[in-house]
Amino acid sequence: MSHPLPPDWTTLLRLAETEVTRTIGDLPEDLRAHAAQLPVCYETRPTQEMVDDGIETDTLGLFLGEPIHEQGASPLPSQVVLFLDVIWEFAEGDPEIFQDEVHVTYLHELGHFLGLNEDELEERGLL
């Protein structure tokens, strides 16, 4: 299956950052405060090192680090990584679907930061 080429990185990044900012702004105040602590990094797709570690090449996003209730257990800060080219391909080149998927993927990874497992994320429609 052929995928539409993504727009230039600056455009894709702007769309994603705008959507993450909007998503955080729509969160309840207590969750917004937690989300503000969690950096979001934007990459094109998983690196070869990530793939070698078992991350699928079609992964849309990733939570790295420890959930909020375990903070301090790891010397590295927690973060969310969104893979924008992969999300663009998933959206089949539709900017609206891209933004919707950035929204859902960010909330999914934020859920991991908040300590939710895959079953709990699915119950909330974030899987």
Question: Keywords, please?
Answer:
127 residues, globular, three-stranded mixed β-sheet, 50% helix
Report the β-strand fraction as a percent range. Answer: 5-15%
Helix content: 40-55%
Order of helices and strands: HHEHEEHHH
Q: Are there runs of 5+ residues with pLDDT below 50, and where?
A: none
Strand count: 3
**Averaged pLDDT:** 88
Indicate the overall shape.
globular
Q: Any idea what the radius of gyration is?
A: 14 Å
Distance between the termini: 23 Å
* Helix-and-strand structural type: mainly alpha
Strand order of the largest sheet: 1-3-2
Topology:
Layout: H1 9-26, H2 29-36, E1 40-43, H3 48-52, E2 61-64, E3 79-83, H4 84-90, H5 95-113, H6 118-123
Parallel strand pairs: 1-3
Antiparallel strand pairs: 2-3
Helix pairs in contact: 1-5, 4-5
